[in-house]
Amino acid sequence: MADETRNHLDGRAHVVVQSGRIEQLHQHIGGGPEAETPAPFQVPPPRHRFANRVAEQERIRRAVEDHAPQAGPLVALLTGIGGVGKTALGFHVARHLADRYPDGVLHVDLDDHRREGTVELAEAVGEMLAGLKVEKEWRERSFAARVKQLWTLTRDKQLVVVIDNARFGSEVTPLLPASDRSLALVTSQGALYDLDVAAVEVPLGPLPAPDAVELLRHLVDDPRLAAEPEALADLVEGCAGLPAALLVAGHWVRKYRRRPLSRLVGELTAELREKGLPMVEAVWDAAYEGLDGEAARLYRLLPLLPAPVIDEEPAAALLGRGYDEAADLLEELERAGLLDEGVGGWRMHDLLRGHAQRQLGQADPAGAERDRALAALIRWYRRQAARADRTAAGPRMTFAAQPDPAGDGPADLLFEDKAHALRWLERHRAALFGCVRLAFDAGWYEDAWGLCEPLWTHYLDHPHLGEVLAAFRTGVEAADRTEFLPAMVRMRCQLARPLWEAGQHEEAARQLGQAVHAAQALGTTFEEDRLRASALEFQGLLKAETGDLAGAVADFTASREIHARIGNAYGVLLLTYQEGKVALRRGESQEAIGLLERAHAAAVEQGRERMAARTGFELGRALRAAGRPQEADALVAAALESARRRGSATDEVRALRESAELADALGEAERAEEYRAEAGRIVALRGGLPAPHTS
């Protein structure tokens, strides 16, 4: 590289860090004065003029002015029934106060992370960290560590945080910034009695009639509103002052521009008398009945999608139509006011979701339409996830037979590369994890565990522990229901790793013990032998994690011998590498050197750059431990170069820190400090927490 000087002294490769390297680093990762990144601003632009809420805004403004230093962040709790406009007020206040909080505006919707009523708080904190520009590889993995990381990064910040759809105070507290110069705007349908910080309560009632009229006039530029004030008043009264209902009413009025407003309202009133429905429900019924057949069917089916954000792809799968047609129908629903193009994509308000579910129950009392659509959705997700998995990870061990495409359904997706495939899996993860549960509840057990298989690759890149544990536990139960032995073994292996990463070592050991025992009954095909070896490898990894190094070596050796017997060269390489790492941990540096030399040579021979770098790095550590730092220096320098070439900042930091240890061993204190300083800058600029100083 142009900004690095490589000197070869006594056969050793040195990387001398110069000021040009640091400047390039700042520019590359968007930090420092040379390349200031903009402050986050995560609330959407206003879609129409904001109406009223003057008193509520003034209450928040006064609280901001009066907030005492050293009292923690200011928390304003916006409460009220669904559809009353809490989120709209939170967004409006955040926009107008943004200048007072120069470090940015963050938003997290807890319903995006709510699974069966419980929020995955580690994921919600992770979303906050992402908003603070912390890339996923630098986010701590456990919930407690992520909260501490958030505190560290926000202790001197002036932020606005909008926390939507809280149900309990315990869901809010971990998301609060540490600085007393920050503001948190929390929306909830009721008071949060377990919120353990002081909060300014801002209750929201329905809009008064004049303000509701004003909002409707902003939504609909129509002379009928002025010409027929009595009909307008009746419509507004029927919407009960709920902005969510007024929005649908506005779209409905705009659709029928030639009819007198009094006639439209009269039709709703007649329906109200006939069916005994609230006016709000009658407004939604009228909007629904104005849809064409396929748009109405899509509206009814959308609540089946177990995700807060709606895309045209799963919509097409639900309908059995093409993507373009689904996109057109979603736009029709948006024009009718039954969908909102919100943060991240199309969204359906909870009130409308309930209305759509009721419409499905009326149109499909036997559930046949629901079951067909749900089966099509789950099997479409299975095929696409499997394709994404193959693109991201290449051919690997799987056992589920993929369902055939539906003849009239949407075409399968094409993924350009690994990054595209992983982005798709992450975007659709809520639906993918949700479909595992839906398939199990419907008794489609192969679909449930079959969908877990491709989620393994996604988990390795995006470790959402709470969601993964729930899905993989369901996968284990589904595999047991099918009594398909390879699936029973594979699902337990997949479950074990997130278990031990969540600190649940005993359950992980129990699952792996069952997997290894069941694997003895597998057949003798290549894939079954490979699965048997894999179960032993997982068990060895857990033993290494919990300090049983002798047991880990025994499992790794047994696994390697199976791979050698079936001619799986990569398996032999991987298990030799694992044995070498354990030998190094046990202080057996000479044995570690022998194992890691074999693994490194195999990785180079097989053309596996990342494994060559990893094995070379560990071999360098073993050589340093054996008192041979001169031989180690070139290997660690090569690992550093590989990390930079691959763009892996975490591997780069590990190599820089090991380079510092080597420099210390060689008596080059100045060079060691240069390496540590560069590692520290990378960590700081990417939002990671610094490692303890080891010199």
Low-confidence stretches: 1-35
Helix percent reads 55-70%
Strand order of the largest sheet: 4-7-8-3-9
How much strand content do the residues show? 5-15%
Outline: globular
Q: Sheet bearing the most strands, described?
A: 5 strands, parallel
N-C termini distance: 28 Å
Helix tally? 31
| Oligomeric state of shown chains | single chain
The total strand number stands at 11
Provide mean pLDDT, rounded. 87
Helix/strand class: alpha/beta
Written account of the structure:
There is one protein chain. This protein has 695 residues and is an alpha/beta fold. Helices cover 62% and strands 7% of the residues. The strands form four sheets. Strands 4-7-8-3-9 form a five-stranded parallel β-sheet. Strands 1-2 form a two-stranded antiparallel ribbon. The longest helix is centred in the middle third of the chain and has 26 residues, at 368-393. Mean pLDDT is 87; it is low at 1-35. It comes from Streptomyces koyangensis.
